[in-house]
User: Fold these one by one.
Assistant:
Number 1:
Amino acid sequence: MNLPTRTWIPGPERIGADSRAHRAGWWSGFLWSLIYPTTNQRVMPTVSGWVLIGLAFGIGSAAYNAANNILFIALALLLSCLILSGVMSWVNLRGVSWLILVSRPLRAGQEAPVTLELRNCKSLVPAYGLWFDLLTRPVATGPRRPEATIRATSGQIRAAFTQLEKLTVRTTLLQRERLNPRGETRLDWTFVPARRGMVRVELTSVGSLFPFGFLRKSHGIALRRDVPVWPAPVEYRFVEVAATPHPAEGVRLAKAGSGNDLLALRRYQTGDSHRLIHWKASARLRRLMVRQFAAESTPGYFLRIDATPGIWPREEQFELMCGFSATLAEDLFTDGRIVGAVIDSGSVIEIHRAGDLETFLDRLAVLEWRPFQREPALAAKADLGAGGADSAGINRAAPARRNIITFAPEGIRGVAAYVDGKITATA
């Protein structure tokens, strides 16, 4: 049982050249940008553009050799079409702004929606046929030590770039409809994150072939957004109920619930069970009255995530543990039976609202696996398997807590959850 997907839209980032913001010296800036464009702009002829340029060279040579005015007129028409194509493509891109919207939460192995919002800030000229190159790739979260690549072979360098390219997803979004002046439109795209962690959604370039397709004009864009990807939900099964009774378990609470103690009588409402009707009170008050029982407290659980090097010798088990703990935290939150969590020696996260649970899942998304480095870690692993976790570490992170859920490897592939030293669930 998982939480329903909540849509959370982060603050947008807008980028683009707005012609209204630079009225002073507009014509001088316009002419100078045509003569000397910025470094992030590229104009390249297409196949038809190269054909037009070659045809212009041929007609120009013939015109100079034959001194024929008709050939000179044809040459002027070809060159004017080429220049007009560049100017109109520049005008088509100018005054268009765009922003990236990424909807959370993002989960590994599930489709993630990305929306590109376009707005034409021009008051007279519409925009046609724009395309947008986007990519997503994982982002390293922790600090990396400098590594020298002088001794690396060319094969190792190519393998590293190939591995990075495999994790990179690229796409091109096309604006197929006309974007009217002062108009807005949206382009949607979905991708599937391969694994948990931070993923970067980046808009790399914006281009246009408008109006004739002779020139390919593009703008290099540095618009990016880093979003955490939560672990994928996993299936698990309960072995036995190993929860230690909560100090307040079974205590009558002063709120409505499904306990055994009568809290109050209230007027019957549509949808109430007929078994709850108090017939004597209804006859005395001459209206239907139903019984309302008091709620009883339920035990709360505290999650302890330990990523000490050596406890998790296999990265596959570590990833399974992350998904297991995330799924278990969501299920406990749905039942109202989770009080908090802690990851390694970090600060304790008190989980009372959906935002607290999202904070825990965000931290779990960027938790890194650290490989086995020393032999004494096997002793820590044995202590964790026997008692669920290091009791001293638990007391330092969450003093005076009970019903602490810890995780440890089970075999070579599985992961087990312990409650106060007793195994309660496996994945």
Note: The CA atoms of residues 148 and 157 lie 12 Å apart.
Number 2:
Amino acid sequence: MKQDFSNVSEERLAELFPVILEPHNPEWAKLYIQEEERICRLFGEENIVRISHIGSTAVKGILAKPTIDILAEVVQDFDIQGITGRMQNEGYVVNRPAGDLVMFLKGYTSQGFLGQAFHIHVRYSGDWGELYFRDYLNGYPSTGVEYEQLKVRLKGEYLHDRDGYTEAKGELVRRYTNLARLEYGERYKP
């Protein structure tokens, strides 16, 4: 079913979708696999270069927004228009944030969250920082704890401002992503 947010104000969206943090849930990995299979089916496996579980739900042991972030890297001639219509018909909300070709959201309704939330970031194949950051947090649990503490503090400041919350985490994310790139080299170079 298509979701329509055209008549929902920014203020109402902020109320409907606050920053929520939950303890790590091992089920997130299973839910990622199920959604990965769905994406491969909808996109066509021949159109996917790499698909990855990113974000805090992919980091063991830390609090996370219970939204499963997925990076779907696609071939250069991927039919973005065609997949956008298909994803809308499957109930995904279309978003076009900077850095992504398109992003599909699932679990969002005009009444609030419904079921498991997913963010599918669609990009051309590349050397993406989210992969490095995820691996660094998994490899250095003390950094994961530092990140978790920042998120808890920021939740209090940005409960109804998800964009502000994300932006406020930026300095720490960039710092550890850069360290990961130094340590891991060109691990994700296509």
Note: The radius of gyration is 16 Å.
